[in-house]
Design brief:
By secondary structure, this protein is of the alpha/beta class. The chain has a domain of 104 residues: Nucleotidyltransferase, domain 5. The chain has four helices and six strands. Strand 5, helix 4 and strand 6 form a beta-alpha-beta unit. Helix 3 runs parallel beside helix 4.
Amino acid sequence: MFRRKSKKLRENNAELNITAFMNLMVVLVPFLLITAVFSQISILNLNLPAGVSEDIPSEEKPPKALEVVIRKDKFDVMERNSGLLKRIINTENGYDFQGLNTFLQTVKAHPEFNIDTSVTLLMEMDTSYDTLVQTMDAVRLIVREERELDEKGNLIQGELFPNISMGDAPPETDNSQTQLGTEGSL
């Protein structure tokens, strides 16, 4: 009835056949590596303001320093020593990043700022992260109407003020008038 297995069969170890699994791995691993999306992270260095400012001798003219103040309803483009250069009011769609970029291009063309690469962004406490990033892009790069491409098909962009410092916006005063005459003149 029941047959007993012989000792010979019990001692035979069965080997695993992993050839099919290895073939699958040889095909699957390169396929996954080729189709994987590698995330691109860009790093933007920021210059944080120093805790203690140095005293500048009074006989020297203080250096020009461009500031963009982000308020909830406008941008104020200022020169630290002279005052307000231009106030850019929000549009019905929100902040006017294109208007800010266009005005900063005219500022960059001015002889007092054409070699300057620094700008300070001063923002109110409730400024959203998205607004901050879009403002940094508007301040940093020239946005052109016509798209110019290089030989590889990449978009050519110029620099305005790539060295960005950040800080808190001063409280808004009602009598903040430009000290340079009419707004928008340098």
